[in-house]
Backbone:
């Protein structure tokens, strides 16, 4: 059996795994069904993704690629009466004091090129169709230029995103994490009104009574704008998703003022998006990373950071196996699954908070204790290892959210236009 590692999917998770493995001397074959550059949604990074970009040796390339600098994240109410800004630099030092907004076609191509430059063999236009696990390795069947081909390897990393390759073939059960199903409709626009000064690069999240918008400045001209609402809102709409998008903009003072002169560049796209995870993320010869392991509601821009972390974790797990290994033991499989599930867990409480009207009142409170703000900024930056004193403050924040459900400690929010 060929001793290479086969990676399926060339998004951030696949490229991170391929880069780290190839730089560590492994033979790597990456199969990507699209030809890059290709469009992908998920354009706002978190500062703690930098740690993984450094680990795979791509940090300098990303830092110098000319992406829009994102110094913070802000949350506004749809009626424009309330705004909360979090500056990463208020609580974090370099290189976590700011991050980037990225056009994914460029960012993903940069990372895939980096994997190639690190020594991985990359086949684009190669769609994996099936795989078999044997006692000594895996065999992957893929299609390229109309022909069916096979590749053999020791290990397989599934980094295929939200239509998980291994998950589908093995029919692995998905757990719904109790966050209601949603749909997103989005496009790139020109002439979106920008924040003045330093805040021009921030991501703006505009909270509606039933959903939210993102505004992500991508370059001097282009802004990504998307709306996320429960699937039921789209089902009840007589027009299409873009009509609901435009109607919602007209109904919100905050969005009207930002999008008054906006013109779409390119088509509106839609994605049905809901939070789930696969319960099993490893087999004897395979590991799943990034969205192929599970998907989190995108409100806190966590997806790419988790994908990079998952790709690195998968590569480290393979690197930890001795040559000629008989496969991952059940204990190793459980350990890998626990590690990946843990990556998402730190965001899921925040997501639940965002969709809980009472808890969100605490988040938007005009006078939060400064110490709590620092803890929340760490979470918004995607920090993995919080200092115990910050964890205590995070716990205090969630305690206040819980108390708010019984007694109103923070003022009620009015979403009326
Ligand atoms: C509406 C929305 C908004 C989002 N906003 C953000 C955001 O602001 N910030 C953020 O960090 N994240 C965001 N995300 C999440 C983000 O898009 C993903 O978490 C991230 O792209 C996951 O990376 P990945 O490498 O796991 O998968 P992907 O980026 O999806 O890459 C998977 C790759 O696998 C390839 N592939 C699939 N099947 C096969 C096959 N059979 N054979 C070969 N190749 C295959 C695909 O072509 C693709 O290139 C958002 C998601 C949605 C839906």
Residues:
């Amino acid at each position: 059996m060929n001793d290479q590692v086969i990676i399926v999917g060339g998004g951030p998770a696949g490229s991170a795994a391929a880069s780290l493995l190839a730089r560590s001397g492994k033979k790597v074959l990456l199969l990507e069904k699209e030809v890059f550059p290709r469009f992908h949604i998920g354009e706002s990074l978190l500062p703690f993704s930098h740690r993984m970009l450094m680990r795979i040796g791509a940090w300098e390339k990303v830092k110098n690629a000319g992406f829009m600098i994102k110094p913070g994240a802000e949350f506004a109410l749809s009626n424009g009466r309330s705004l909360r800004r979090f500056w990463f630099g208020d609580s974090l030092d370099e290189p976590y004091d700011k991050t980037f907004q990225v056009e994914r076609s460029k960012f993903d191509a940069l990372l895939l090129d980096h994997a190639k430059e690190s020594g991985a063999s990359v086949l684009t236009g190669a769609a994996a169709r099936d795989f078999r696990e044997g006692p000594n390795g895996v065999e992957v069947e893929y299609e390229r230029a109309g022909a069916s081909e096979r590749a053999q390897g020791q290990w397989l990393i599934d980094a295929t995103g939200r239509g998980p390759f291994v998950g589908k073939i093995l029919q692995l059960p998905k757990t719904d994490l109790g966050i209601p199903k949603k749909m997103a409709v989005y496009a790139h626009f020109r002439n979106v009104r920008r924040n003045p000064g330093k805040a021009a690069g921030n991501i703006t999240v505009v909270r509606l009574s039933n959903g939210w918008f993102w505004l992500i400045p991508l370059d001097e001209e282009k802004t990504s704008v998307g709306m996320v609402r429960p699937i039921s809102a789209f089902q009840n709409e007589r027009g299409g998703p873009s009509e609901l998008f435009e109607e919602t903009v007209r109904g919100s003072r905050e969005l009207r003022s930002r999008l008054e002169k906006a013109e779409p560049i390119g088509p509106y796209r839609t994605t049905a998006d809901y939070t789930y995870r696969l319960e099993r993320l490893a087999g004897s010869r395979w590991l799943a990373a990034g969205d192929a392991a599970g998907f989190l509601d995108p409100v806190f821009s966590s997806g790419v950071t988790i994908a990079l972390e998952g790709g690195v974790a998968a590569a480290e797990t393979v690197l930890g196996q001795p040559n000629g290994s008989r496969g991952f033991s059940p204990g190793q499989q459980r350990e890998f699954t626990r590690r990946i599930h843990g990556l998402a867990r730190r965001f899921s409480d925040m997501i639940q908070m965002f969709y809980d009207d009472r808890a969100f009142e605490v988040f938007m409170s005009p006078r939060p204790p400064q110490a709590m703000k620092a803890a929340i900024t760490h979470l918004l930056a995607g920090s993995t290892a919080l200092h115990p004193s910050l964890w205590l403050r995070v716990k205090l924040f969630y305690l206040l959210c819980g108390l708010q459900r019984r007694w109103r400690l923070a003022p009620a929010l009015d979403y009326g236009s």
Observations:
- The mean pLDDT is 94.
